Amino acid sequence: xxxxxxxxxxxxxxxxxxxxxxxxxxxxxxxxxxxxxxxxxxxxxxxxxxxxxxxxxxxxxxxxxxxxxxxxxxxxxxxxxxxxxxxxxxxxxxxxxxxxxxxxxxxxxxxxxxxxxxxxxxxxxxxxxxxxxxxxxxxxxxxxxxxxxxxxxxxxxxxxxxxxxxxxxxxxxxxxxxxxxxxxxxxxxxxxxxxxxxxxxxxxxxxxxxxxxxxxxxxxxxxxxxxxxxxxxxxxxxxxxxxxxxxxxxxxxxxxxxxxxxxxxxxxxxxxxxxxxxxxxxxxxxxxxxxxxxxxxxxxxxxxxxxxxxxxxxxxxxxxxxxxxxxxxxxxxxxxxxxxxxxxxxxxxxxxxxxxxxxxxxxxxxxxxxxxxxxxxxxxxxxxxxxxxxxxxxxxxxxx
Length: 400
Description:
The chain is α/β, with parallel strands linked by helices. 28% of the residues lie in helices and 22% in strands. It is built from 12 helices and 17 strands. The chain has helices spanning 46-49, 63-67, 121-125, 143-157, 184-191, 214-223, 251-261, 286-295, 309-312, 319-333, 352-359, 376-392, and strands at 4-16, 19-26, 38-45, 57-61, 75-80, 98-100, 108-110, 134-137, 168-173, 197-200, 209-210, 229-234, 265-268, 272-273, 283-284, 301-307, 344-350. The strands form 5 sheets. Strands 11-10-9-12-8-13 form a 6-stranded parallel sheet, with helices on both faces. Strands 1-2-3-5-4 form a 5-stranded mixed barrel. Strands 6-7 form a two-stranded antiparallel ribbon. The longest helix is centred in the C-terminal third of the chain and has 17 residues, at 376-392. It is globular.
């Protein structure tokens, strides 16, 4: 069920690729709130609903806002309110018949990189190999900038600038937010040239390239965008129920399988926390232990951070956390998970210089409400996956 409101635009705020923040006055308070006018933040996906201006009356979906859910904290613009005449212009006619967010009121039609109308259809029609391309798989969207920072750190250590000439793709799955425009992280990384391309797969949409599956998304990253490394993770807004199997990050195990099936080098990034109050997420999260230990049916490299003393002494880390991470990761390398192959644990040093590189990220580092200094292990664990992926590119980097 949806909770609806009519909102009148008071002012416009921040904008980034495909999204515009608004301040709106609701026609009536949210459920359970005090009577009287309510002003809230709203988000308009400009490719879907146009660019509202002050004075516009909008139909808003406030369901998540009314429930106090954390991701975004927005009322979402569905479109102009009934009776208004300020409608977005019709899209420019063009190819593409791939429908995403299918059979919802905001379903959108895009040109899939792999569909028949695409100029790349012939390239992907028989494509069947990633040619050994490293594929870093992560549970949370917040890992993305840290993984890319790790790639760039390894390049710097090797004496090259940026990502060392590597082209990096982000393959966004549909476990979290569906619109890529919801992510300021993607926009910031693209604007800073930390990412070469974003490929949205499944029901997710709004990337530089659109694909039907993780498989064709990875193949497009390699053979269309010419990338040397791919990072696969869901969009913002991880869904979890506190049960072993009921969380959207379970798809990380399937992404490992996809990368291996296509001849890539799967690198399984651990979801780690030293600050989460929930025991199931302390150290290596049960999300990683289940996705890689039970769902992944093919071997992957699992980078494990080996912190120097100055990193280990950061708040929310310490020797006990390092020990816990290693003990939990060891279960993934032992092959004791039901149905899994034996993963390869890779020790990766993590020093203060890596933390300094993380601080240079053009996208804010934030996970579960905590930043780099509040939960450094979370971001360092993702960054070492990027470091390892860089090391794997030696035999797969294309000359350009």
